[in-house]
Amino acid sequence: MTQLRVALLASCTVEVLERPLGAALRERGFEPSFWISGFAQYQQDVLNPASGLYAHEPNVVLVYLDAEDLFRDLIKNPFAQLAEARKETAGRIASEVAALVDTVSQRLPGATIVLNTTAVSPLNALTGLEFNSEYGIQDAVGEYNRAIAAFARTRPEVVILDAASLAAAVGFSRWRDDRLWYLARLRLSRHALDALASGYASILAARLGKIEDDGYEDRSHAYQEMVRLVLQAQRDALLTMRREGRLSNETFNRILRDLDLEESRLEA
User: Fold this and answer.
1) What residues contact residue 35 under an 8 Å CB cut-off, 6+ apart?
2) What is the model's pLDDT at position 54?
3) 4 falls in which pLDDT band (50, 70, 90)?
4) Are residues 245 and 130 in the same domain?
5) Residues 6+ apart with CB under 8 A from 220
6) What is the model's pLDDT at position 223?
7) What CA–CA distance (Å, rounded) separates 76 from 93?
8) Confidence of residue 217 (pLDDT cuts 50, 70, 90)
9) Does 248 lie in the same domain as 203?
10) Which domain holds residue 240?
C-alpha cells in the first residue's frame, strides 16, 4: 500500500467525507492519513504557516469549495448585480482561490492540489428569470468554474474535480440534505459523499501513478462509475438543450455519438 498524506480543506463541514474517501483510496492501493480543517477555516489554515495543514506535510491537498459559500451574497440578493458585475465577482473569487493555491504550492512544493467545480440548485430565487431577465446566479457560478479550469491548465500541480457534473448526475435534490445542514452545517448527502469520494480517489489514482501502460487511467469499477455519472449528466444536458431548441438534430446526434463512443471505451 502506498502511504498518502491527505489534507482536506473546505468552506463547509466535510469531516464525514474521511470514511468513504479513505475506503475509496484503499481500494486503489493507498493507505491514507488525513488532516481536516475546521468548519470554513480553509483560508486561515492556508495563510497561517504554523497551521496543522503544513505540520501534516501532505502530498495531496483537497480544497472543496461550495457555491453557496462562495456566492453567499449573490444568492441572498440575486437582484444586486447585473451580468457584467456578476462576471467580475466570479473572476474575483476565482483569483482569491488561485492566490490561496499559490501559497499552498510555495509552502508544500510537490503536493497535488485538487480544486472543484461547483453548482447551485437549479431551483432558486431566480428560477424562471435566469434566461428571461438581466439577473442570474447560474452564469456567475459558470464563470467561476471556467476561471478555475483555465487557472488549473497553467499549473501542473493543480487538478480539477468536476463536482458540478457529479451533482447533476446524482440529481441536486439528492446531492443536498437540508437536515444535515441544520444539524451539523453539512450540506452533502450520503449520495454526494460517495460520489465525491469516488471522484477524488479516481483522480488521485490517475495522478499519482495508477496509470496503465497504454496511458489511460485505471479502468476500475469505481472509476467507470464516476465517468458514467458524468456522461449521463452530459446526455441530460443535451436533451434539455434539444427540447429548448438550442441544438439541431444533427448536432445533437453527433455529440450523442461521441458520448456513446467514450462510454464504450470504458469496456475496452
Assistant:
1) 5, 6, 7, 8, 52, 53, 55, 56, 58
2) 98
3) very high
4) no
5) 27, 28, 202, 205
6) 59
7) 17
8) very low
9) no
10) 219-268
* Count of C-beta atoms within a 10 Å radius of residue 85: 12
Secondary structure of the chain in HEC code, one letter for each residue: CEEEEEEEEECCCCHHHHHHHHHHHHHCCEEEEEEECCCCCHHHHHHCCCCHHHHHCCCEEEEECCHHHHCHHHHHCCCCCCHHHHHHHHHHHHHHHHHHHHHHHHHCCCCEEEEECCCCCCCCCCCCCCCCCCCCCHHHHHHHHHHHHHHHHCCCCEEEECHHHHHHHHCHHHHECHHHHHHHCCCECHHHHHHHHHHHHHHHHHHCCCECCCCCECCCHHHHHHHHHHHHHHHHHHHHHHHCCCCCHHHHHHHHHHHHHHHHHCCC
Same domain as 226, residue 159? no
Looking at the structure, tell me whether residues 22 and 49 fall in a common domain. Answer: yes
Q: What is the pLDDT of residue 212?
A: 40
Residue 142 belongs to domain with CATH number = 3.40.50.1110
Count of structural domains within the chain: 2
